[in-house]
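Chapter summary example.
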Amino acid sequence: MASQGFTLFHVVISLIGIFSGLVVVGGLISGNRMPILTAVFLLFTIATSVTGYLFHNDHVTPAQIVGGLSLALLAIAATGYYVFRLGGIWRIAYAGSAVAALYLNFFVLVVQSFLKVPQFHALAPKGTEPAFVITQGIVLLTFVVLGLVSIARFRPEPA
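The structure predicted for these 159 residues follows.
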């Protein structure tokens, strides 16, 4: 079992990834590259997924599957941003995969909130109740819209 200190570390880097990611998505929508915040977002979101594998489990968990998907999306985002410098199709690949990776982190935030925050847990103790499903539906719809708008509007100035 992971220590409380490690769990806190994982939560803090997750929150840094989420908050920096939200700012980066704002930059995508406004056409701003935000190189420092983009690096923070990618680094901390990768660290979140990697540290998630360090929690002891006897079998593959849904969280590990989400972490693997997130790492694949982050590899696409980092490649598009740093290797191909957002050229051609890589602009779309970067914007779409960055928003999708942020969504997965936010999805896990909602899951963990309903598991760990007593007031939320009381509304959906099994994670299948309407409060949980509606919340996740709103989050998904929000990120689909953010992703589509980001892809459509992200036309950064050349570096």
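To summarize the output: The chain has one domain: 4-153.
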